[in-house]
Amino acid sequence: MTDYFIWNGVDCRTKGIHVSELPPITIPLERSKQTNVPDRPGSLTQLEGDDVYDDMILTAICFIADPAQIPAIAAWLKGKGTVTFANRTGGHYNARIANQIPFEKVLRGNPHCSFAVNFRWYPFWYQENVSDVTITTSGDTITNPGSVYSEPLITVYGSGNITLMVGTTIVELTNVSSSIVLDCALKEAYKGGQP
Questions:
Q1: Do the Cβ atoms of 84 and 22 come closer than 8 Å?
Q2: pTM of this prediction?
Q3: 65, 103, 133, 186: which has the fewest C-beta neighbours closer than 10 Å?
Q4: Domain boundaries, given as residue ranges, for the chain
Q5: pLDDT digits over 81-127, tens only?
Q6: Domain 5-127: top CATH class
């Protein structure tokens, strides 16, 4: 397998980057607090909530043959966006470049430079090419194929007062005129477009 990563839709190989080591597929750490109780063996674990996880750092070890590419690579590998790794295709992680990137010579007299890119990722993997689901009848259901809760973008079409049930949560929408967007990730509701 050829190792690579795709950052914000751009394949690293188009920048002359070769990946020598991809991050392993990793399960994030569940956010919890451990409390030691006097005269009791072990500790008590308090979960912050169901399916609440810490961010993680995924590191790709890379090298380039042409140091003239360093300015273009430095301009590209920054900020936030989506990252896909060769060992986990079909989806992406939402991430941020989380380190300074030192380009180090591999061998004296050799133009190759090695470097590591740390991606701090939100602890969920998002499947690509998921079709929109349209429900037109009251009582219809959608099943989440994932292993934890999802944070969908829901557009509700209608007018007046609407009751929407998501899982066991009831959402009361009042004075809707034509449509309203419920962005579960941002925890916001807005009319059309962006919040």
A1: no
A2: 0.72
A3: 133
A4: 5-127, 131-195
A5: 999 999 999 999 999 998 888 888 765 666 788 999 999 988 888 88
A6: mainly beta
